[in-house]
Design a protein that fits this description.
Blueprint (H helix, E strand, L loop, with lengths): L3 E5 L7 H17 L4 E6 L2 H8 L3 E3 L8 H6 L3 H26 L3 E7 L11 H17 L3 E7 L7 H11 L4 E4 L2 H9 L8 E2 L23 E5 L14 H20 L3 E5 L7 H11 L3 H4 L3 E2 L6 H9 L3 E4 L2 H9 L4 E5 L2 H9 L6 E3 L6 H12 L1 H31 L2
Length: 410
């Protein structure tokens, strides 16, 4: 019987960084496991299947709820009745469906990303699904792997218990940075035997055409935007954090425009980053002479389009993790606005800690200072990035070889 590898993650949801992670691991699965079948479990299987050309299965029917059902669920009584008479029976059906999906699976792989943190994740959301599918993998007697996953912080006690319970079932665990491994150890999980390998995105080199020569035209600075609502990513609580972030990035864009740079607006999540881009443009319209002809805003709907936009820049100032990571893979000097330890770890690992600024730091002066210093040191920075990226690719090759040996033994 042909062995099957099932990849699990938050895919098909228009988060372009997650889509690149899936693209990277698919490339390497086909390289290291040429005779294995591969499929995917995710929230939006139709989109994932169409994009990546593999069979895909829904993680849970909860991700396919209608907006009407969401509105009805705001009523406490209706919410309670739905849980008792609809949710519980339906969840039993979901477990049975998931068990059938894993029928021929030899290896269930939790594929990178920050799935073991709580930024935008509730206990009974993705964390619950991870535990559910992990338990079913063990029931099916297939190997369970957590590969270059990001972990922490996790504030909710229930999420902590769920995460630790899920990863305790794994046959193989690795984390994408030292912070993730150390964090899990601090909350009581034994990580001594686990490994640290780079983010999976580093295992696939982006393919882009060489950008045309500009012949003296202004330098292009990519500005990676994010709908940022504070450290817990809760829009209902974080409007103040959003407004402060908006004012900061808009002031920085204005500073660039005043100095004749061309600004390329970038996003990393098609579903969530449209508000901030519109708000930045609206604020800049208060000074139309400043912005005329020097802001580039091209719609993006795929990670390939995002990479093409990044390739046209000279430097990048970004907030989303994978905007930063993909820019670095394209050998672009980057200033990072960090809202999470994963960004700090990424920049530190590449020797770029001095170009990482806390997102909540007041004012724009610190951002300007880091950008100016990075521009002066751009040549040396590119050499450093290129060398470290190659080291990361070699390290990930080593990890895939380790997993291949585990797969052969399954």
């Amino acid at each position: 019987m042909k062995q099957t590898i099932t990849l699990f993650g938050n895919f098909g949801t228009q988060n372009l960084g997650n889509e690149y992670t899936l693209k990277a691991i698919l490339h390497n699965v086909r390289k290291y496991f040429p005779h294995a079948a591969v499929n995917c479990v995710c929230p939006a299987p139709q989109d994932a299947a169409a994009t990546h050309h593999i069979p895909a299965f829904q993680m849970s029917s909860r991700y396919a709820r209608s907006s009407g059902a969401s509105k009805a669920a705001r009523n406490p009584l209706i919410r309670l009745l739905r849980r008792v008479f609809v949710r519980l029976p339906l969840e039993l059906v979901q477990w049975l469906k998931a068990f059938r999906v894993l029928k021929d699976t030899s290896m269930l792989v939790m594929t990178g990303t920050g799935m073991l943190g709580d930024f935008g994740i509730e206990p009974l959301d993705l964390h619950y699904e991870i535990l559910k599918w992990a338990l079913l993998a063990k029931a099916r007697r297939c190997k369970l792997l957590f590969v270059s996953v990001g972990a922490g912080p996790i504030e909710d006690p229930l999420s902590r218990w769920i995460v630790k319970s899920a990863i305790s079932l794994a046959d193989y665990r690795s984390y994408r940075d030292g912070f993730s491994k150390d964090y899990l150890a601090r909350i009581g999980f034994r990580t001594q035997a686990d490994s640290v390998y780079p983010d999976l995105a580093f295992s696939l080199t982006p393919e882009v055409p060489r950008p045309p020569q500009r012949n003296g035209k202004p330098r292009v600075i990519g500005i990676g935007l994010m709908d940022y609502y504070g450290r817990r990513s809760r829009p209902e609580e974080g409007e103040g954090a959003y407004r402060r972030y908006l004012e900061k990035v808009t002031a920085f864009v204005a500073w660039l425009l005043d100095r004749d740079y061309t600004v390329q607006l970038l996003i990393g999540d098609v579903s969530y980053d449209t508000r901030v881009k519109g708000d930045v443009k609206a604020m800049l319209q208060e000074h139309p002479a400043r912005a005329r002809g020097r802001i580039v805003d091209v719609p993006v709907s795929s990670v390939e389009q995002l990479i093409a936009q990044l390739a046209k820049t000279d430097m990048v100032v970004a907030t989303r993790f994978h905007n930063i990571l993909l820019a670095l893979m394209l050998n672009k000097p980057v200033v990072a606005l960090s809202y999470h330890e994963k960004i700090t770890s990424l920049m530190s690992g590449l020797g770029l800690a001095e170009y990482c600024q806390d997102i909540d730091a007041p004012g724009v002066d610190g951002l300007v200072e880091r950008f100016t210093r990075l521009e002066r040191n751009a040549g040396a920075t590119r050499s450093l990035i290129e060398r470290k990226a190659e080291e990361y690719r070699s390290s990930l090759d080593e990890q895939y070889a380790r997993i291949a040996r585990l797969f052969e033994a399954s």
